[in-house]
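Deliverable D4.2, example record:
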Amino acid sequence: MLFDDSYKTIDAPTEGFFRDRGSKFLAYAYPIKTEDDAKGHLNELYELHPKAVHHCYAYRLGLDRTQFRANDDGEPSGSAGKPILNTIYAHDLTNVLVVVVRYFGGTLLGVPGLINAYKVATDEALKVAKVVTLHVRDVYTLVYPYEQMNDVMKVIKAFDLVPQQQHFDNECSLQLEIRKTMLNQVLGKLEKIDSLRLEFEGTI
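Output generated by the structure prediction step:
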């Protein structure tokens, strides 16, 4: 089975809204790459809505379903974070955070009512989002002598790569983002270039 390095996410933040028996549910969806991204957006919403009774959220990261978190923030267990997460799954998205901020309207909704409210609010935010297909990439810095410039550029051109953060001197360097599915082919060609050094920077 071939490894698929593509995934679907949203390209920009979106919002959704749902009201039930006086309670207001404001949903905020964000594209994210890390847990720190999620924490940053959460902190922004705590400041934006200091009087809200709950800031429930869920996020999913990566290609599989092992990197995720769901938080009920004081709502009955399983009534908020899980419906948000399941709705993210239903839209087949990853690298996404959804926070639903609740203002209590004075009437208890019960667990079924809460599950519905958090699900619908999340759905309202996600269904207006522009969905984009991206690819998992490994980032490498290439360091090489100036005289090997042509050999490096031939490989870059052959695989239609876009060099970044280029520096040209007696010793040159540039950064490349390489799709996971192309990694072995590209690195195989680069490793044949004399005096070239590859430094792995991470995965995005």
